[in-house]
Structure prediction request, 655 residues.
Amino acid sequence: MLELNHDQNVFSISFRAIDYLNGNNQQYYYKLEGGNDQWINNGSSNTVSFANISPGTYTLLVKYYNCATNRESRTATLQIRIRPPWYFSNGAKSLYFIFILSCIGLFIHYLMKRSQRHHDAIMQQLEQQHKEEVYESKLNFFTNIAHEFCTPLSLIYAPVNRILRIKHLDQPTLRYAGLIKNNAERLNSLITDLLEFRRVETGHKTPKITAVDISGIAQSILEAFSEMAVGLNIRLEANIPAKVCRNSDSSFIVTILNNSLAVAIKYTEHGGIVKLCIDTTNELLNITISYTGRKISEGNLPHLPDRYRMLDNLEHNPDAELNSRDQLALAISYSLIHILGGDVQIDTSDKWTHFRVTLPASEATANSTPANHSEKEQLIPKADTQATPIRLPSTPFDDSKLTMVVIDNEHELLWFMTDLFSDKFNVICFDCIPETDSVFCDNIPDIILCNYMMSNFNTLDFTRRIKSNPDRSHIPLIMISAKHEIEDQIAALNAGAELYVTMPFNVDFLRTSVEKLLKRKEALKAYFASKISAFELVDGKLIHKSHRKLYKEIVDIINKNIENDKLSAEFIATQMNMGVRKLYRQVEEIKGIGISSLIRECRLVVACDLLIKSRLTIDEVVFKSGFSNRVSFYKAFAKKYNCTPKEYRDRNSIG
Prediction:
């Protein structure tokens, strides 16, 4: 075989006939199979030239014709292989094939990913649309309910105002009327916030950009909160430059500052600090409200302005770090900030929590000047948080009364509970979950009333700590909660609470529940202090608990050794490490029979059980029940059951 490279495809091949006598009388013929299948007459020339032969395998066939003898020679062959270039080699073709398959696969993968992205985008759009529809339906529901509350709320608020105007009312009437008025105002404030949120979300609240005296509004709001801060022992600090004016909406600025400061003061610990800082940088108005107190976990920070979660909280009222009212206030502020084109960030550092608001400069929509002092006073809302705070109630301690501990965040509810039970109890109030040692340091309470929904505190853990302590587990604990779900009631009872009372509760029901729990506690105490608690009623006879325990031990020994022919009073006495005479005396005292009779009774019980539940023969039953012979078994059986064992089996057999 002749092998040539792809660049050697121009070549010549010479051949010669082995006939020296007639060498000049020969004609040569050739054919190149794979290139040309026709025989070509090459005349007397013994050289063949080929040019531009494509890569491949060929067969060159050569023969000659002898003109003198008129005979044709045999065909000679030569294999010729033109190797292809490297880019046409089998390896290269394999790579090309793999590359093409990879391109096809990548293209199919791209089409599938694009289809998946398109599908995900459609699903996300549908999910967002569904989320918006649910959000809109919830918002409509809450606003409709809020409108329905307006009429009964007016019928509460107006009459109580008239009652408060009556002169010479006694103090209890004034106190309860004031309590009704304060809570009516709180409910009205919540309804107003909800309706305001509805206006903001539906785009019906548009800003009226005018020149706003930021410094004056901030100082006025701080003054409105100052009385409340002093009552809570909170220090208000301010860093407000003079004459800071910006084009903005004054009502928006007031709402943002008022809601943020109200939440900050509410969650600042006693003796803490609340700071308000205002500055301007590059035409931006920066407002920072910082406070020390309960920190918000980083996982919940991104969800504070979430309007969807806020409505879920209004619906389900979970044990969140911020209650639904505060989240609603922050959601309103967040929406107003974004309407003004600003941004808000909430972060924590060390013991501080910071609300950072950034507002850009806006073009005025009307010619105006900054509001004067009287106009600013009209802008500042009279929120319930600006009222004088209610301090924790305290009553003089009376040793002749029982002691009750009440735990709740709401000071007004603590005042109400104190007034409700102070005639019979020394009421000790806590506005947060106390350490258990602080509750019992001076006096162990006779009963505890605790709110199930304490902000940032786990009342179930507090209940478990009390009930796990043997010295305090006897104290009755009543859970009071606005949650009506059965799961929460079960969780409270499993933690150790004796009673779960839902709000709004009936006062008479609560007082009766407290009285009954305390009477039950005293009844149990009297029972366990009496002699009768040491006895149990068994078969119409009072048996001492220690005797019952001894009797159970004797019966257990008999049952374990029922087939033992050595089972006797001596055997049992040895097993129990006591004397035989003492054993006889104890059994006689407990059951009124001798030890031998007790053994026989136990064997008869086993025999009856075997007769009914097994197919053993009578002889096998005699052996299994421990009797020494048939005669004694039949005699004892007939004496007790007035029949033979066979009759007993037939009488009690099934079917």
